[in-house]
Amino acid sequence: MGNVGLLYVGAVLLVNGLALLGRVSARSAAPLNLFVGGLQCVTPTVLIIQAGGDANAILAASGVYLFGITYLYVGIAGLAGLDPAGIGWFSLFVAGAAVVYSGISFWRNGDPVFGVIWLAWALLWALFFLVLGLGKQQFTTFTGWTVTLLSLPTCAVPAFLGMTGGMRSDTATGLLSAGIVIVLVALARLLSMKRVTEPVPA
């Protein structure tokens, strides 16, 4: 995924996480989803057209559509007040595809950092499936915190590192990335439990 597009994916994930936490309305989050979704559909299309049949370039661009379609779907649903179940079931497909892209990053591209990042994204979209596709509302707060906490470390941070030439991907940085993701997911769990157990004012 291009670093510029990845930067804005971080922004839209942050806003969508806050929406799940009730801090941002679906309608107010919709324009950003539409903008980033459009960007993430136009960009890979241009890259594929310019690839000249290069299988590696096409593969690299193909995963971007997963995000673009998701955000366009979320933006349209937020403005039109549509049932989010369709987004949820599409998210199941995205989660499965993200696992495949993770494997490609690990074993084909030799990029353990993005292998970990793709697994983190698989988790996020699996949670979207639980909340939006299956209606498991008990996971909404945990999903909101997980999306919010992972949005910048899995998107904006690697985007800035990539644009400034500071991105590294080896076994050590892959393990560090995995550790950060695990800690942030655990923190999301603690924050979601705290909210659930807070006493209701009399």
In short:
By secondary structure, this protein is an all-alpha fold. The chain has one domain (3-197): Serine Threonine Protein Phosphatase 5, Tetratricopeptide repeat (Alpha Horseshoe), CATH 1.25.40. The protein has helices spanning 3-20, 26-50, 55-62, 64-80, 85-108, 112-133, 140-163, 171-197.
Provide the fold topology.
Blueprint: H1 3-20, H2 26-50, H3 55-62, H4 64-80, H5 85-108, H6 112-133, H7 140-163, H8 171-197
Structure report:
The protein has 202 residues and is mostly helical. It has one domain: Serine Threonine Protein Phosphatase 5, Tetratricopeptide repeat (Alpha Horseshoe), CATH 1.25.40.600. It is built from eight helices and no strands. α5 (85-108) runs antiparallel to α6.
Low-pLDDT windows of residues: 197-202
- Write down the Rg: 17 Å
Q: Please indicate the percent range of residues in DSSP E strands (runs of 2 or more).
A: under 5%
Number of strands: 0
Helix content: over 70%
Mean pLDDT: 92
Query: What's the helix-strand series?
Result: HHHHHHHH
What is the CATH homologous superfamily assignment?
A: AmiS/UreI transporter
The CATH class label is Mainly Alpha
Count of discrete domains: 1
Q: Which outline best applies?
A: globular
* Assembly state (oligomeric): single chain
CATH topology: Serine Threonine Protein Phosphatase 5, Tetratricopeptide repeat
Largest sheet: none
Distance between the termini: 50 Å
Structural class: mainly alpha
Q: What would CATH call the architecture?
A: Alpha Horseshoe
Can you count the helices?
A: 8
Main location: membrane
Membrane topology: Multi-pass membrane protein
Keywords: Cell membrane, Membrane, Transmembrane, Transmembrane helix, Transport
Subcellular location: Cell membrane
